[in-house]
Amino acid sequence: MVWEAKPGCADHHRAAVERMVNALPVAWLLPPQSGEVFDNLGHCNERLRGYALAEGRDIVRNGGGTKLNPSYRFRCIFHGEKTQNNRKLEDRVEYDTEGTITSKRQRGVTNVRQLQCPWAAICSYRDIGKRGSGNKGYILTMQDDTHSCTAADDPFEFPAHLKTSEEFKEALHQAKKHRQQVLSYSESRRLIDAEDFGVVVSSRDYYNSVRKEVPDKSKPRTIDALLVMLEENSFVFRTRVSIEEDKQGVAISRKLVQIWFAHRKQLEAAQRFVADWLIVIDGTFNTNEDRLPLLVVVGVLNNGQTFPVAFSYCPSESAESIGFVWESLKVECFTGNIPPPRVILGDWAGGLIASVPKAFPDSQYQGCDWHAVGAMLKWYRGKNKDYTSEEIDGSGEELQPGQTKADLRVPGLHHYSWMYIQSDTLEALKANRAKLVSLLRLQDRHYITEHWRQHEESVVYYYTLIYPNLGSTSSQRGESYHPVVRQTTNSQLSFEDSGRRLTGKILSTLKELATHEYSSLRSYDRLAQLDFAAFQNLACTISNYALRKIEAEWVEMQQAIDEIEGTD
Description:
The N and C termini lie far apart (69 Å). The radius of gyration is 30 Å and the shape is globular. A hairpin with a 5-residue loop joins strand 7 (235-245) and strand 8. The longest helix has 24 residues, at 544-567. The chain is of the alpha+beta class. 39% of the residues lie in helices and 16% in strands.
């Protein structure tokens, strides 16, 4: 019977996993038993690793025998209670008052795997059968054949299995050639993806970062070719057209004005991570020779990373164009009982602000704080204003230790604009607003008291800190995808070629999206070991990004409790 990978195995890994497991002896798919005899220790290692591969587990060698009596000890990769810390490092990175690290521990974010799994085995060179028979061999003894850890659906969650696959070896071989030619990681990544090895060589394995174009497989020059390519690669797309009619109302021409597209797996991720939470939208330019803006919609994974939800080429960032994006998401993503995002974060474009209440009346629009301050600075420097550079940017003298820009001879409107936006209490908001207004000319004070006062709930921290925005205050996440887009597109490309390259990049990104939780499922943040009784049910269950946040709050709560008890 042909062995098949589990349903949860990543699609691009499935073929390689099934090939590897089906190449194993059938007997190796059965649980290892005490008394099995092997030709050598390496043979035993291959047998146990083969079984672990099929089961979605991983094992490590943990010590051995002597030259006269060689042996291998095997443990589950999740064995042990805590790290040995042989170098006696501190539990946390320690800093002095200037922010310089003073502890021997230099890195605070490290993941560990100790889950106290009891599985253990030993293969030793000893007599076969009765002691003293003189017939010796390498015999397996199962010390504990039970696992307390959870098996993985995709064995390639474990790098050791991934790196033994022929697909990875060939991909790495190609990557080494690329590196010898001084190609970048991203350039090599696109070349390797084009070969369809089905595995990803990480940047750690490759090392570098310059971009270059994907191999030229075809030259589609029509919008029909782009749409066919999208459909063949399982993309969902919707188009908006303008129809020209004659005097009798008969359509005489149709012109494509906007196209929205996303891969089905992007939308599945959005249903899980964006629904009822946060979505960020931003526009970028110079991605095609027609100068059509590209709207980029992104969300946040449970490991804190940004992922693309959808893209749309459009004529402008108008309310109509952005409204078409929202409508497409409502049709293809936020359907049935899947709620839309509660917070929509973007810049202060009028079209975006107008589109949100129409598409999602129950969602909160949140404006980017960086763009808000940028708009204020632009207003202060307007042609009809007479504020000096010192009044806007501050007097600029060197700050002494412990001083802030508020201690400058002239703090500047720039500083107090940020203070106003970053006010996190009602008292601070009132005080910072009053201070900023007092620095303006009498005829200019309406700009804050009237214009920005009406937008405070969309940008001032006192309000936004309680929104379900995953800690985001700016459209930085959307803008962070601009370099990703420009790696594969430029203003010299036709609209069709720009779209083709962008979809190629998305297909490559989907491979990372399918495995983004692997690290958190197979290791957990080291700091959780400091109070493992509190975190044992969360280790390798939730993302390490979330675990770190919970651990930090747990420590703060414990310190608060200690202070209260000490006061009592």
